[in-house]
Amino acid sequence: MFVAIPLMIVPFVFYNAVMLGSGLPSFASTLVTVPMLSGALWTITLGDVVILVALIALFFEVLKATMSNRNSLLNHMLSMLVFVVFLVEFLLVRDAATQLFFTLMVVAFIDVVAGFTISNRAAGRDVSIGL
Predict the structure, then answer these.
(1) What are the phi and psi torsion angles at 32 (to 5°)?
(2) Which of 41, 44, 61, 120 qualifies as a FRET site for 29, CA 20 to 30 Å off?
């Protein structure tokens, strides 16, 4: 049953927890600064980590889309619901109108489109016509 839960809910919940001020640092706060061989400093912010988590979640969602079982349709419907919630919050909530949230919303949209497309392709290969 946990396979049906869309993983894009994790960055969504984390973004909202930070946005609502749950004591977590802001997205612009620096987590790590790494000196590079070129002399430049590479800084990793909390927002960068959230995008990384969203991309990892997208990878696993694409892997889940290749499975054709009963939970796949439920996963696709819930992924669409997560995208719609992203979109509504982006349009209606002032603190969600940021580039970070927009990027997370686009990742959720790619999850929906890729999930339906991959499942449709995989289902087409599962159909065999016997003569």
Answers:
(1) -145, 140
(2) 61
